[in-house]
Amino acid sequence: METPTTTITNEVLNDLIAINNDRIAGYEKAIKEIKNADPVIKELFMTMINDSREYRNTLGVEVQAAGGTMETGTTAAGKLYRTWMDIKSAFSGTDVKSILSSCVTGEEAAQRAYKSALEHKEIPANIRLILVEEKAALKASLDRIKAYYNDVKDYGEPV
């Protein structure tokens, strides 16, 4: 039988799993949309996809260990943030600058989601450590995306 703490923890973790699912879908969409992008940016997006798969799976193990069911969807019906879904539909143009801008917005939403999750006092210490580590890694991704954004000319070509 789940305790209220376990239920809250599983809900919070499943929200973060959904955010990571959204992040995967968002970067997959970005890779498809960018036609002439620097291969380094595409490689960065692939790295972020792989990172989110790892984060999602790590969180899923914790949900399942507590007797819960791991979220398989995205935040379309969402509880915390829906920004990644907005990003996926926001690619009206395929220039690198606008795509990177959307990615910055999504990464900032992921930061807010992890911050919100960490505010829950019910989260056990071992899971809190996982969330702190994932949040830090996501912050590094945000910083990298911002750096690429700042290095791209307005018409979408790398400087």
From TrEMBL:
Pfam families: DUF2383. InterPro entries: CHP02284, DUF2383, Ferritin-like, Ferritin-like_SF. Residues 11-119 form the DUF2383 domain. This is PA2169 family four-helix-bundle protein. NCBIfam families: PA2169 family four-helix-bundle protein.
